[in-house]
Amino acid sequence: MESIEQVNYIKAPIGTIYKALTSEEGLRNIWTKKLKVKPEIGFINEFDFDEGYITKFKVLELVYNSKVVWECIASDEEWVGTKVSFELSERNNKSTVTLKHYKWRERTEFYRWCSYNWAMFLFSLKTYCENQKGMPSKP
């Protein structure tokens, strides 16, 4: 099994980052404008990137200001069955976000492209939390 792992450092309170990762408002400003999101275990978050399908993640774990875990149940076939986690920590007025997209069946060209896009997601999260201006996709 393959795993994408990215890290970024954000000059914002950990609570701001957690809220951005678990709310419609936050994810709308970071990832895509077309979505349905609730911070509830078992809820199916939906993200529409105008690619002909809806990406759906089941919320598996929410640890306030610490961790978010999703499982992909519908999307591109390479994503289905994979999991995404966001682990948060804070030290010296700086927050660390570690993103892991794991349980990939193999390392493919799409896997590599997604690694790049997850880095862009973390940059969008950073700009949103620090400057209230993320970079969501434009469907």
UniProtKB/TrEMBL annotation:
Task: List, for all copies, the residue spans of the domain called Activator of Hsp90 ATPase homologue 1/2-like C-terminal.
Answer: 11-129
Q: Where are the transmembrane segments?
A: none
Q: Which InterPro entries match?
A: ASHA1/2-like_C, START-like_dom_sf
Query: What protein family is recorded?
Result: Belongs to the AHA1 family.
The protein here is known as SRPBCC domain-containing protein
Which species is the source of this protein? Membranihabitans marinus
